[in-house]
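Teaching note: in complex prediction, the entire set of molecules is handled at once rather than each chain in isolation. The prompt given to students was simply: 'Predict the structure of this complex.' The entities are:
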Amino acid sequence: RGVSPTITSPDGKNSIHINGRVYGDYDFIRADDNPAGNHFNTSASQLRSARIGIDGKFAQDFQYRFNVEFAGGTEVKDAYIDYNAPFTTPFFFRVGQYKTPNSLEQVADDFNNTFMEQAAFIGGTQNNGFGLDRSIGAGTAAESDKDNYTVAFGAFSQNARNTTAAKSGGYQLAARATKAFKFNNTDDELVHVGGSVRWRDLNNQTDNDAVIYRARPFFNNTNRSINTGTLNNVNGDLFLGPELALVYGPFSFQSEAGWNYVDGAKGRDDATGLWGGYMDVSYYLTGESRRYSRGAFRSTKVLQPVTNGGWGAWQLATRVDYLDLNNTSADIRGGQQWSAIVGLNWLPVDFVKLSLDYAHTHVFNGNGITTQGDDNSIDGVAARAAINF
Amino acid sequence: RGVSPTITSPDGKNSIHINGRVYGDYDFIRADDNPAGNHFNTSASQLRSARIGIDGKFAQDFQYRFNVEFAGGTEVKDAYIDYNAPFTTPFFFRVGQYKTPNSLEQVADDFNNTFMEQAAFIGGTQNNGFGLDRSIGAGTAAESDKDNYTVAFGAFSQNARNTTAAKSGGYQLAARATKAFKFNNTDDELVHVGGSVRWRDLNNQTDNDAVIYRARPFFNNTNRSINTGTLNNVNGDLFLGPELALVYGPFSFQSEAGWNYVDGAKGRDDATGLWGGYMDVSYYLTGESRRYSRGAFRSTKVLQPVTNGGWGAWQLATRVDYLDLNNTSADIRGGQQWSAIVGLNWLPVDFVKLSLDYAHTHVFNGNGITTQGDDNSIDGVAARAAINF
Amino acid sequence: RGVSPTITSPDGKNSIHINGRVYGDYDFIRADDNPAGNHFNTSASQLRSARIGIDGKFAQDFQYRFNVEFAGGTEVKDAYIDYNAPFTTPFFFRVGQYKTPNSLEQVADDFNNTFMEQAAFIGGTQNNGFGLDRSIGAGTAAESDKDNYTVAFGAFSQNARNTTAAKSGGYQLAARATKAFKFNNTDDELVHVGGSVRWRDLNNQTDNDAVIYRARPFFNNTNRSINTGTLNNVNGDLFLGPELALVYGPFSFQSEAGWNYVDGAKGRDDATGLWGGYMDVSYYLTGESRRYSRGAFRSTKVLQPVTNGGWGAWQLATRVDYLDLNNTSADIRGGQQWSAIVGLNWLPVDFVKLSLDYAHTHVFNGNGITTQGDDNSIDGVAARAAINF
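The expected output is the structure of the full assembly:
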């Protein structure tokens, strides 16, 4: 849960925990052909995340989580209640704003992901991709640590940040299922397989049925490198995302793909060619294993923290990430890019992480909106100090 | 106080409690004559409120409360210190930003009001009405649970959100007195009578002495239905608000009126015709009573919470609400509206509430600013999931 | 630490404390020659500060502090982690956003400063001066209560609020050293000497190497009285700040100066004439002493709090403050001002302070940007209710 303690009532029925995180980044980024009006070049620091909130339980069977992000503009993130109804166990119910159940990397707490930024197709809050995001909605899910499976389903409106502007925002339906196979009766040898689906209905009278897909060159503190621009006349889109991961002692492999089908309206053709994906391997030099539970990676337990005179946990990792936002038959020319990333993470203790990532991104077949020229490479190196409360 | 626990020091002189609330709404609203540039039609969700803060006591005789709202823009709400000086008991002193002592529905925690939105004349933060609101000021009050009375008086400047723009913001004086008569020596059979007054001085050189009155058609997630536009050349206004309420077991009746007299300046006539009011009845099907204490309704104690295998508390309610913003002799033509509202509330446990409200609003004698046409009806249905921390 | 309690785990290795503060101000300000488009005249209240966050320790040797300001716009303030590595004692390490180690008055918690606003040359968040501010960076420091010294050094980028706009923000190096001499083996008779330095590199391609220096007439809730306007073509600036303070029982003397050398670029001459400083004396009528520890003034311990039937702590103080933003050879004509301030502070209990300050500011040799005329006087009186959590 992070470094801050959980306070529990004597009867164990109520508890409260202050959650949050602070990420301080320094970025040095250079493009080999840096367009004049669209400078990628960066040498600056930023607070990448500064979040605080509360979570806990009450009346035994209810749980809540609420937090607010303050970096890069103020925004409510999680804001939901869970009800673990005894008569529907193992299913529980959730209402409020929370992450739609999509993608292994998206559902995890960012702190427990291997690299500083998510894969390009996921997008998250500020980078967009295929727009996997928190939304206001309700749903149900079942999770089991014993049987190593999860299933989740939800119906959603939009993220709270959008609801002031748009009075009619369509809806989303999303579902995810995962299963882990553990070997040798141990938690650190396992294979995860999973998949998720999301249907977004964008069809409404007032908003011109618009959508946008775009991405940055891995790092956040720079401009976007590929971008479809605003696509009007779209009924909706369908996201499909298979997942595969493996943990074998200190070694881990992780991979996902995401296909996004765009359902055209009013004469716009359907787009079937937008997709992205990644593959990575990582290794703990100091012997730790990535922790996995209920369909997501969790926080690593540091074997020899510096406070015990140890070296902390050291992790080496590399990833290839790809995103294709081109579909000429549907007149979508957002561009394509691949990134090669190498990362080093040091956790002196649990819940504190210093990261150093290098990324080389190659952009091609673009539309001139963001890349000014057909071939462009962007190199960046970034350091982060992160703490999870 | 909500679902989160209060932490108290061993000597009992200091305590802290994390307060807050999250309201997630879904609104479906249709106008029978929906103007092009002023669409009332909505089918969207929003975070209606997402608030967090702290309250507690220190040095035995002092109390504080501080919280911030994050939904629909970030804003400091309560920010005050109370001093319960032993030598002035039962009077205590308050300084900071807090609600001016006006209106039975306004002084209550919203969670404990029967319907999803306040009466139109009250206005609150985003809906305006006669502008009853929190303001920076200081005052004194006495409250007694034993003798069932309250008196309060305060002198105020403006709400903190306004103080950046306006360097000279006039002042407000407000007072309220209430008395409850309990029958049969029980807390759930009582009559509440009360009244409040507020004088706002808007007279200053820099701000053109401007004021605005307006309202939405009950629901918040749509445009305003009646609106005076900006009224210049106003010295100030005087608000008078009588209150009457009754609790008789599971049954409750509640009613208020609000008159607002506008004191014209520089040739503008006085306005005496602006007023609003409401009447409602509510009934707990599951036997609970509305809780009342020290001049305000408090949180209902659920008799059979779902965590004990019960059905929670179910409440049915209906209200008629009226607001008249027309005064032709003073050249104020904001329009008039009445709303009929039916509501159903379900509290599965204390401090969690699911609400379903239907409202029919009829707008007439408008000025064309917001209604485009003399007669317009707006129908809406909304659902809310709410938690109080 | 303020009025809210610290919660510590049974083993003493982890703790959490909710920090924050609320300052409610009322200002009455009049200029003897109030320019039309630049009105200084104010009679209004404001929330001067409304801040909340958490601090604590974890894993024994780590500490964190995180808080957010909500008054006058939302902004992350402190966001850092400390590591007290046993093998480098007495030095500890800090990473994140925190105050650059400059100026006796700047490094203190504002609550413990004698007057309602800092000296003009310091500037702080909204008043600018020479721009002493929190920034994202990393550094090391050593502090000793036993030997009464501090040394600190850090390398910084910018404040998080600036990093969205500017992708290349230069860097800062800052250092400070202090020593206190205590007499008669007591904590309330001491002399503090100290000094700090800061070098800011503003040289980069994208931002036009711009800097601005400016100040308000002591009070915050009015316009700026002197102002260099934006200075382009500047490589950087060097700040030097000597400090001297004395505590002798209830009496205290405090003084600082700040020189700011501007390193011109592209034909702009260097500026050597910008400087400011202040001197003040204060006296506790009720016998308290200002508390000093590790290079900064700390919260006063009230001897006879009102909750024990006492009068609280009463403090009288007066200050002369000066700032010169003119250097004609470098074509910088921001103006000059001096202020005479008289203040009265009442602390009914620890961590609650009511302040009443009067200030007379005289502005001269200005450039017309802010003062419209060569000689102008501004008088103000302000009251504040403050609480520290």
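Point out the following to students. Helices of chain B lie at 104-107, 124-127. The interface with chain C takes residues 7, 9, 14-16, 18, 53-54, 56, 58-62, 64, 66, 68, 74-76, 79-81, 83, 85, 95-97, 136-138, 157-158, 160, 163-164, 166-169, 204, 206 of chain B (CB under 8 Å).
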